Amino acid sequence: MSSSPSTSGTAPDRADRNGSTRVMWASTVAFTLMFAVWLMFGILGKPIQEEFGLSDTQLSWVSAVAVLNGSLWRLPAGMLADRVGGRKVLSVMLAVTAVPAFLVSRADSYAMLLVLAFLVGFAGNAFSVGIAWNAAWAPRERQGFALGLFGAGNVGASVTKFIGPPIIAATAGTTVVLGLQGGWRLIPVVYAVLLLVMAVVLWVVTPSQDRMPGATRPLREMLAPLSQPRVWRFSLYYVAVFGAYVALSAWMPLYYMNNFGVSLTTAGLLTALFIFPASLLRPVGGWFSDRWGARRAMYGTFVVMLVTTGLLMMPNGHVVIEHADGSRTEHLAYAMHIVPFTALLFLLGCAMGVGKAAVYKHIPEYFPGAVGPVGGLVGMLGGLGGFFLPPLFAYTQAWSGFPTSTFFVLFLLTAVCLVWMHLTVVRMLHERSPEVSDDLEAPVPTAPAPAAVAVGTTL
Q1: Of 195, 177, 197, the residue nearest 186 (C-alpha)
Q2: Which UniProt keywords are present, listed alphabetically (predicted)?
Q3: What's the pLDDT tens digit per position in 318-341?
């Protein structure tokens, strides 16, 4: 007795959907934790700065080296996930990262802190592993949503901003269990324990028979797509929507405290108002890209980013007019207060959240057989943007004297991305329809002459 076609096809489909769902949710939770560990120095920075007596520039390098190591290995990590399976790679990464995370609590010098921050940054490479893993499991029609939901694990950047200040304030100057010091040093210990627990959970709940789309492919074949200019263009987009997001997540608590005089707790909460939409809207961006196309999402992203950064980069001040008699008058006074500043930062986060998903929606469509290496390279270069931008913020502020120069840097970066994308779209349209390439307006359609329609023609 043979089973009916419907029955034989339903069970595997159901199993695939179940496996895809377990991979999606387990990897998202794991990535959220890894992202929290990766960017924990954004909120720990101020107490670290006070204890070690660091300048703003020195402090910026603590976050920067963590971001650097969280970007360097994304390409090989994505390829490894395609070759041996995301389940193995992500589980090992969780366990390995727990070691330097714990050792951060023992740092006793700036040099040691830099080394450990670099090692902890390895957590950031979990992104390309999860992207390749989810792309291998998710059906094509849901890839945008699945990758967007996984990417929403970026919200982990706000975890430390919520739990950090209360724990630091409650335990500062005390010794907790097993001789562990309280204050900021307790946070990395908590994360080390959670990383080990999550490694076990991930291994248990995800399918043991993993998918490895690159298991039999030669290395040269896997790397071949990286020579295409399109990959590097996507990478620049990701610098703008993700690298800038990482940089601002680490930079904004200090920015709020220095420029608005708020406490560490308040600065963390206000920064979270930027992080939440930049992370939680990523599934929305994936859904939008699935439904209406990633290019439309990118246009909207860059336009909103240009407007918001253009307003945020305006320095407080006024126009001074010198009259012929030597007198001066002041006009058009301008100052950005904390409420409109936070509202614009929130909108900037919304745009980045949609844009991050749209960039990665392109990858499985253009490179269905090379999501691991292409996604790894795009993620690596985007993450390197998060490494270079915080020191660039610090140096441009020191050079110009304007704290708002932070957003001038992002304005220029976004403008370059938008111009490059638009020129590419125009060139594509020109290649497909050269007969209308020189028209400023679309040609007006004209009705065909009656004689042109033959009798019996189907219209």
Answers
A1: 177
A2: Membrane, Nitrate assimilation, Transmembrane, Transmembrane helix
A3: 566 777 777 777 666 667 899 999
Closest CA to 381 of 219, 154, 226: 226
CATH of 14-211+226-319+331-433 among 3.90.180.10, 2.40.30.10, 1.20.1250.20, 3.30.559.10: 1.20.1250.20
Q: Are 282 and 152 in contact (CB under 8 A)?
A: yes
Exposed, middle or buried by CB within 10 Å (0-12, 13-18, 19+), for 416? middle
Handedness of CA 379, 370, 283, 31 (dihedral sign): negative
Q: Where are the domains of the chain?
A: 14-211+226-319+331-433
Place of tokens 């993620």: 379
Q: How far apart are CA 412 and CA 394, in angstroms?
A: 16
Question: Taking a C-beta distance cutoff of 8 angstroms, is the pair 143, 135 a contact?
Answer: yes
Written as six digits, the tokens of 325 are: 């008699």
Structure confidence at residue 438 (pLDDT): 52
Residue 132's contacts (CB-CB under 8 Å, 6 or more residues apart) are 78, 79, 81, 82, 86, 371, 372, 375, 376
d(CA 362, CA 267): 35
**Alpha-helical runs (H) found in 138-243:** 143-151, 159-171, 186-205, 219-223, 229-238
Instruction: Please name the residue ranges forming H helices in 261-293.
Output: 264-280, 282-292
Q: What is the DSSP letter of 213?
A: T
Q: How far apart are CA 288 and CA 297, in angstroms?
A: 7
What gap in Å lies between CA 21 and CA 134, rounded to an integer? Answer: 9
More confident residue, 451 or 413: 413
